[in-house]
Amino acid sequence: MSVTAYTPAGAALPALTKFVRVRSTADARFVAFDFAIGDPALFVELVMPPAAFADFCARNQVVHMSEAQMAAVDSELEKWRYGEDTLMCHNHQRNTQANSD
Hints:
With 101 residues, this protein is of the alpha+beta class. It has three helices and four strands; from the N terminus they run E-E-E-H-E-H-H. This is Phenol hydroxylase.
Protein backbone atom coordinates (compact mmCIF):
# COMPACT_ATOMS: atom_id res chain seq x y z
CA MET A 1 0.00 0.00 0.00
CA SER A 2 1.44 3.32 -1.05
CA VAL A 3 0.62 6.60 0.69
CA THR A 4 1.03 9.82 -1.25
CA ALA A 5 0.87 13.28 0.28
CA TYR A 6 -1.94 15.41 -1.15
CA THR A 7 -1.05 18.86 -2.38
CA PRO A 8 -3.55 20.75 -4.56
CA ALA A 9 -2.21 21.64 -8.00
CA GLY A 10 -0.35 24.93 -7.93
CA ALA A 11 -0.35 25.14 -4.13
CA ALA A 12 2.99 25.83 -2.53
CA LEU A 13 3.84 24.40 0.85
CA PRO A 14 4.69 27.09 3.41
CA ALA A 15 8.38 27.45 4.18
CA LEU A 16 8.32 26.86 7.93
CA THR A 17 11.44 26.96 10.08
CA LYS A 18 12.50 23.55 11.40
CA PHE A 19 14.08 23.54 14.84
CA VAL A 20 16.23 21.01 16.70
CA ARG A 21 17.35 20.82 20.29
CA VAL A 22 19.94 18.17 21.08
CA ARG A 23 19.31 16.47 24.43
CA SER A 24 22.14 13.90 24.43
CA THR A 25 25.81 14.46 25.23
CA ALA A 26 28.32 14.97 22.41
CA ASP A 27 29.94 11.57 23.02
CA ALA A 28 26.67 9.59 23.11
CA ARG A 29 26.22 6.62 20.79
CA PHE A 30 22.93 8.10 19.52
CA VAL A 31 21.73 11.68 19.19
CA ALA A 32 18.54 12.30 21.18
CA PHE A 33 16.85 15.49 20.10
CA ASP A 34 13.63 17.47 19.85
CA PHE A 35 12.38 18.34 16.36
CA ALA A 36 9.84 21.09 15.74
CA ILE A 37 8.33 22.65 12.63
CA GLY A 38 7.23 26.27 12.84
CA ASP A 39 6.88 26.46 16.64
CA PRO A 40 9.69 25.26 18.94
CA ALA A 41 7.13 24.44 21.66
CA LEU A 42 5.44 21.77 19.49
CA PHE A 43 8.06 19.09 19.10
CA VAL A 44 8.61 15.37 18.82
CA GLU A 45 11.45 13.51 20.47
CA LEU A 46 13.68 11.58 18.07
CA VAL A 47 16.79 9.41 18.34
CA MET A 48 19.25 8.75 15.50
CA PRO A 49 22.84 7.68 14.95
CA PRO A 50 25.12 10.72 14.58
CA ALA A 51 25.58 10.32 10.79
CA ALA A 52 21.82 10.06 10.24
CA PHE A 53 21.26 13.11 12.47
CA ALA A 54 23.77 15.16 10.46
CA ASP A 55 22.03 14.13 7.22
CA PHE A 56 18.58 14.85 8.73
CA CYS A 57 19.70 18.35 9.77
CA ALA A 58 21.20 19.11 6.35
CA ARG A 59 18.17 17.86 4.41
CA ASN A 60 15.74 19.79 6.60
CA GLN A 61 17.90 22.94 6.88
CA VAL A 62 17.29 23.00 10.63
CA VAL A 63 17.93 25.84 13.03
CA HIS A 64 19.18 25.02 16.53
CA MET A 65 16.89 26.45 19.20
CA SER A 66 18.21 29.55 20.93
CA GLU A 67 18.73 29.71 24.69
CA ALA A 68 15.58 31.84 24.96
CA GLN A 69 13.52 29.32 22.97
CA MET A 70 14.82 26.43 25.10
CA ALA A 71 14.01 28.34 28.31
CA ALA A 72 10.47 29.06 27.07
CA VAL A 73 9.93 25.39 26.17
CA ASP A 74 11.26 24.26 29.56
CA SER A 75 9.02 26.74 31.36
CA GLU A 76 5.94 25.45 29.52
CA LEU A 77 6.90 21.85 30.28
CA GLU A 78 7.20 22.65 33.97
CA LYS A 79 3.73 24.23 33.98
CA TRP A 80 2.30 21.01 32.52
CA ARG A 81 4.28 18.85 34.92
CA TYR A 82 3.79 20.80 38.14
CA GLY A 83 0.84 23.09 37.44
CA GLU A 84 0.57 26.68 38.53
CA ASP A 85 -0.17 27.74 42.08
CA THR A 86 -0.45 24.16 43.32
CA LEU A 87 1.23 22.36 46.21
CA MET A 88 3.34 20.37 43.73
CA CYS A 89 4.44 23.60 42.03
CA HIS A 90 5.42 25.22 45.33
CA ASN A 91 7.34 22.10 46.43
CA HIS A 92 9.21 22.04 43.12
CA GLN A 93 10.10 25.74 43.36
CA ARG A 94 11.31 25.29 46.95
CA ASN A 95 13.45 22.26 45.97
CA THR A 96 14.88 24.05 42.94
CA GLN A 97 15.78 27.08 45.04
CA ALA A 98 17.38 24.92 47.77
CA ASN A 99 19.50 23.11 45.18
CA SER A 100 20.76 26.36 43.65
CA ASP A 101 21.93 27.77 47.01
